[in-house]
DNA sequence: GAGAAAATCGGGAATTTTTCCTATGGAAGG
DNA sequence: CCTTCCATAGGAAAAATTCCCGATTTTCTC
């Protein structure tokens, strides 16, 4: 078996170095490049060969996901292991749909990184527990708000999720504040989302806000 | 010079391991403990001796800052080096006020960690460029919440910004719901942030949420 | 250190918001 | 036509918030 050529993209130098040391303990792995931003990573990987890219999605340059997509389109043979802070279902499923070959959360054990890289090298698709669970959740959300809420309720929901106050919404929809308050109650009951922040988070992770 | 006894608290096992490897390259440093959560760290450090704690503020157990305060109160001789994702002015100044002896952002060079630890051991107060700059900014930014809010108010603010309900916060802080409600009112008045979602947005754009 | 200033904590009362229940009119559908 | 669901709101009760206040404790200042 020949040596796996691994590249690391993470905006935190310390984290990169930590990874490098970790990975270099493995005899079949060489770290061939490190990148601190998306552009550099993209340029280098288009011009040079690597087997695996360990990619932190939360990178500056605004678009870890975008880079992932572009890289996969340009260099399809490159295996990409996403290594993210966030285990949110939406994030995981976005990343996998964008073409990631594996997904680890940063709460994984150090060994998990090594075995994930080796697994990838062998053609596997390693997912951390958390990521697998998240993917599962993302699949079967049968009680999405737009399904349990009436049209008007859903409209109020999106407004609430944007942080508008009850009376602002009433003004905007030209109805009584009382009515909006009543809708709010119904929405909370039907969705289980207790406050505007929860609604916002829900709406965001489910891409319900434009 | 005797060996510096260093402990590491970070919720990401991979990061801890990276630090350990980095620090152990230095002959005058021994890593004596690693912690994945605040409680464990606190308990251990009260019972055992360490010279320096490298502390990631964004830890579970809700309250990296709080742990920092408690540790400083209980074990004043312990030097604490905060090592955070965020270089936000507010964060830096809160941490320093809570008693941190040094502050590095994760974008620092790997070597910076080592030199910061050594500097701390020699009685210095290492700040990363970013942190120093942030502290400076914090001085001029007279509207920032951490300046208009008291420590306790700021703490409640971060909890509200995370979407916790008043009573949940009361339970977590072991005070009356009435007190938290009163804090909430003060926070809203002082910051002009009218609801949890606005607080969340503010906190996010200012990177105040670990 | 003594005194001043600020912070933490909560009670009480007034006010506002939210909930719950009810009701009317209209649209969709069998 | 009758049933059902939806949009709209009013009233009353319940809950949350605000405002005002006082008691301690901490922290800062001279």
UniProtKB/TrEMBL annotation, chains A, B:
Q: 4-aspartylphosphate (modified residue): where?
A: 56
The lineage's top-level taxon is Bacteria
What sequence ranges are listed for the domain HTH luxR-type? 142-207
User: Which segments constitute the Response regulatory domain?
Assistant: 5-121
Keyword GTP-binding in the entry? The reply is no
Pfam families listed in its UniProt record: GerE (PF00196), Response_reg (PF00072)
Keywords for this entry?
A: DNA-binding, Phosphoprotein
The protein here is known as Response regulator transcription factor
